[in-house]
Structures are given as structure tokens and as C-alpha cells.
Amino acid sequence: MKKRGRGKEKVTKLIKFAERAKGLEIGDKIKLILFLTGVKPNGEIILKVDSKNLGEKFDFEKKLKEEQIIFSASKARSYEEIKKIKGNQVIWEIKGTYFIYDLFGSKKDKEVFNKYLSLLNKGKYNQGDLVGGKHYGYPLSCVKKFIKEKDENFLKKKYTYWNYYKKQQDLDRKFPFIFHRACSLKCKDSIRMNQKYSEALKKVSKKVYKEYLSRSKFKGGLIVGGISDVEIKGKSIWPKKEGYEYELIFKKPFRKHYFLVSFLSRKKYELGQVLKGEVALRYDYAKVRISRKKRKVIKELYHKRKLPLLGEVTVQTGTL
User: Fold this and answer.
1) How far is CA 284 from each of CA 26, 56, 61, 72, 165, rounded to the nearest angstrom?
2) Which residues contact 130 (CB under 8 A, 6 or more apart)?
3) What Å distances lie between residue 183 and 1, 146, 188, 319, CA to CA?
4) Fewer CB atoms near the end CB (10 Å): N or C, the chain?
5) Which residues, other chains included, contact 43 with Cβ-Cβ below 8 Å and sequence gap of 6+?
6) What is the value of pTM for the model shown?
7) In the chain, what is the greatest distance between 2 CA atoms, to the nearest angstrom?
8) Where in the chain are the domains?
9) Are 178 and 171 in contact (CB under 8 A)?
10) 3-class SS at 22?
11) Residue 53 phi, psi dihedral angles, 5° rounding
């Protein structure tokens, strides 16, 4: 197998694919490019396929095989997007399918990945996370902190509601180029990695780099669609809250899509409350400024969909 970064002509073709692919979100484009240049040891990306890019799956796999990159692809799974908001219903529709690709730097890396999956399947989640974290090149200190924070009782003792969600948002802003949850804002390994990934992306693909750094702004109506929380047996671990992390839904399409963004606020809003504000979008997070609260409240707001909601409003501790 050729070492990635040596077969420049073929790698360039894959980078060009990443730059133009309609089925890759910006984060997946970055992960693919960093993997191709050897900066990331292994990677996982999602490719969406709909009527507008039916040939991309075939084209992508053909290029991976030409470059002799070891990979595995999941079975097709459906995904949804918000179609419209009507009355108290947020109506979703199936837009297409997606495939999860695991990309490996070597055969040994694939064996390690299979071990990771085996541990998860056996319910040995902490051991699996340690193996998986090393496989993806995450700092050990961050992996250990991630494992600790899967314990709701640990979270309850360590943080208040506000401190927990404030920390998550601060980390997103501090480290926009990494793909793990840093253990702290001062994590030296994460700081170095964030800088390394940023510089590598800028050097290899100015197009994707500029796209990721670009800013866009939405002004208009926002609907309170839910409140984030961590629960044990249906009860919040923080019964007293100093603020709330809301899920806000754009009342009208923006760039042909209804966006959902997180908003941390000291103020209390009702579910279905209609707000007017401004949302600045950059990287993979949003800065929200509410100008005023409208009197209108959409009673009994709910999501009408056929598939489970990805990233439930009620946050459960996830996997690495």
C-alpha cells in the first residue's frame, strides 16, 4: 500500500472530490482531507446521497480503491430534514440516504478498529473508548475525561447546569478544528492539534479552509424547540437551573434549509416561544442575539417525523 501523502496525483483527485462533493458536510470534508494528507491517522466520514448527487458514492469508492486506501462502508440509512413548520408541527421529510465510511491508515488500524467495535458490542464501553480514542488520535487525557463525564453522577457533583453547558460551548469556540471533546480549555495537546489541523487544511485546501471560516448571518423569527438536559430515569440531575440551553429552530428557511442551533441564556422561555433575533453562523456553531420576545407561543409544539431525532433535545451522554 502506498503511504498517504506520497501518491500526490491520486490524493489530489480525492481532495478535489472532497472540495466539490455535495454529499459531504463541511466537517466531513475537513476530516477526509486531513486523513488523506496523513495528519489524521484514521477517520470516519458521512456521505449523504440524494437525487442531486447519485454518482458520488460510486466515484468516491472508486477513488479510494485507486489510492489503495483501506475502508469500510455502512449500509444505506435514511436521513431527514425539516420540510416546513405548520401550526404546532415541525414537519420532517426523508431527503435521502447516508453512508458511514471508516478510513484506515493500515491493516493494523483496521484490526484495532474491529477490536474497538467488539468491546462496544460486549458492553465494555470504557475499554472501547480508550481503544477508539487512540485509534482516532485523540489525547489520552481527553479520552479519560470523556469517560468520566459519561457518568451522570459525576456530572452532578462536578458541574452546575450552567457551568456544564457553558463549558461545552466554550470548548467548541476554542477548538473549531478538532473532532474530540477537549478535556479543558487549557489542554496543551488539543491546542497543538487544533493549530496543526488548521495549518494543514489551509495549506492543502484553501477552498475548504475559507468555506469553513466564512460567516453568514440570519435575522428573523426563532422558535424555542426544546431545552437540553441530562437525566437519570426521566429526572434532571440539575433540578435547580441558573439558565437554560435552548434548541432554536429558524422560523423560515435560510439557505434553503431550516436550521437548528443551540442558545445558552439566563432567561427562561416557554417551549414554542417565538423570538426575534440575529444568528451569526461560523465554523459549526452559532452566536445568537435575541432582540425581543414575541407574545406568540406555539402551544404543544412537536416534531412530526418518521425517524428518531438525531441529537435528542434531552441530552444523553453519547459515545466517543
Assistant:
1) 9, 24, 27, 26, 16
2) 143, 147
3) 35, 7, 10, 15
4) N
5) 31, 32, 34, 35, 102, 103, 136
6) 0.90
7) 63
8) 8-211, 215-315
9) no
10) coil
11) -145, 45
Do residues 5 and 203 make contact, with C-beta atoms less than 8 angstroms apart? no
Give the residue carrying C-alpha cell 485546501.
Answer: 205
> In this prediction, what percent of the chain has a pLDDT beyond 70?
93
Q: What is the dihedral of CA 212, 215, 221, 224, to 10 degrees?
A: 40
105 C-beta neighbours (distance < 10 Å), count: 20
Q: Compute the distance between CA of residue 261 and CA of residue 267 in angstroms, rounded to an integer.
A: 17
Which triple of cell numbers denotes residue 115? Answer: 477490536
> Could you give the CA distance from residue 212 to residue 27 in angstroms, rounded to a whole number?
8
DSSP 259: -
pLDDT tens string 250-288: 999 999 999 999 999 999 999 999 999 999 999 888 999
Q: Are 17 and 60 in contact (CB under 8 A)?
A: yes
CA distance 216 to 63: 33
Q: How far apart are CA 149 and CA 170, in angstroms?
A: 16
State phi, psi for 306 to the nearest 5 degrees: -100, -20
Could you identify the residue written with the cell 437548528? Answer: 260
